[in-house]
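agent> fetching stored inputs for the adenosine monophosphate docking request
agent> found them:
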Amino acid sequence: MSLPIFNYAKSHPNRIAILQEDQSYTYGNLLNAAEAFAYNLLQNESDLAERRIAFMVKPGFDYVRTQWGIWLAGGVVVPLCITYPLPSLQYVLEDTQAEIVVISPEFEAVLADYCREKGLRLIILGNEEPEAKDVLPQIELSRRAMILYTSGTTNLPKGVVTTHRNIAAQIESLIEAWAYADTDHTLCILPLHHVHGIINVVSCTLWAGGKVQFLPHFEAQKVLDIFLHGDLNVFMAVPTIYFKLIEAVEAMSTEARTQLKTRLQAFRLMISGSAALPVSVMEKWEGISGHRLLERYGMTEIGMAISNPYAGERRAGYIGMPLPGVEVRLVDDQLQEIGPGEVGEIQIKGDNVFLEYWQRPEATAQSFTADGWFMTGDTAVVEEGYYRILGRTSMDIIKSGGYKLSALEIEEVLRTHPAIADCAVVGLPSEEWGETVAAALVTKAEIDLKALNTWMRERMPAYRVPRQYLLVLELPRNAMGKVTKKDVKVLF
Ligand code: MCA
Ligand code: AMP
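agent> prediction call returned; pasting tokens
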């Protein structure tokens, strides 16, 4: 069967799908390029049969044609973060056992040697050999489609596997709830190795026939220029981005702010998600744009689950109600469903829920109840029909700039530093970042924090590197001899 994500492209080949720098690409350009790429991937085979294809590709036309090409050829897409250092990329490549790696030419220095060393097939975009093929495989919706890496309560990130059915369910639910249309024109500034950018911004818009404009990296001033001088009408971002946009707007003249407000008032929709939206940010943005941000709640494993209404009241500090096709319940410690006003864990059921953690059957089993509910680890309460998030069941999960980080993963890396005997990583509250990463260190030699920062950045993405360190000689320890987080917290 043909995947529904391609339906609009097939029926409207002449409409614009992608805008990037000064170039525009139609749905026809996209589909043709994706098919050509699928033949290239297949070579002498008829179906990639769920083999994992990793790609480190710049956001834009090349990214989408690669993603679509892999799906058309029957492969599983594994998008790599374009700013990760090699050790983090290597982890994903090894964990997924990716056999083919696709890169934009600018990433050759990062990955080419590694691929050659490991004997992986490397495709550098722009250098593809044309293949004389014309038959693509039939893809059932039940097949695996994508693996995204997420940090959690274990020290290593896990690959979240979604099927084509999961992705279709996630998209259809949002299209119904948020009324995406072929008149939509959105801006993608989010990284494309996470659900927020991949599903909500790019895939939903292309499914509905709209235009996606790409800006490779977030820069507040550039975004404001595009708002002012373009014809965007939809915008989605994490709270930190709204915070940074507000800062930039506050530095503008009154006249420029009035001009901006007039433009922004013409937008159809503005959304915030991936982390709690501070009420102060929501209110300031409303003053600037005349838009009450629609806040919603999601997770890599489930796509979006709960959202404030498109048409009804968007309540500050609340994430809203269950989305179409998504079953939501709150349960207490005994897994008993609870009612309004009581605090419990959010659990989810529906076609939107992922298939498995890649090659981690135990972790998969542990994240579902016996009767098939996915346990999110987020705590919430329902008040007057609206869900409100209160926190997480694990303090080892940090949300910073919209990224979910595992304190344990950061601690593991810190502990390999020759001058660190032990450590505890925690998230400190921050209006700008949601939380910032901080580490308490038990040192065994003198330590230079600047040098430690550089050392960490060679080993993990910069947003995981602690911004604040608390140096201590000795800390309370638990029975296993480890520093206990409970005790560290009181030190701040
Ligand atoms: C970067 N910096 C930070 C952090 N990150 N400082 C504190 N905490 C952080 N988390 C510092 C850098 O070290 C640097 O400092 C300076 O900020 C600029 O770094 P840069 O990387 O250029 O930052 P940026 O481009 O301004 O990045 C901010 C960002 C980015 C645009 C908000 O973090 C981002 O794109 N976040 C979105 C993540 C996302 O899409 N999450 C969705 C996953 P110095 O100059 O001193 O070195 S969640 C999801 O998908 C679920 C399903 C959902 O619900 O949506
Ligand atoms: P990730 O695993 O990166 O997809 O992050 C998912 C997590 O982000 C959820 O489990 C929540 O803890 C958090 N999250 C997403 N949206 C919101 C929101 N609107 N408010 C509070 N937390 C959120």
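agent> quick read of the result: The pocket of adenosine monophosphate (ligand 2) is lined by residues 150, 195, 273-276, 295, 297-300, 319, 376, 378, 389, 392, 399, 404 (CB under 6 Å).
agent> awaiting further instructions
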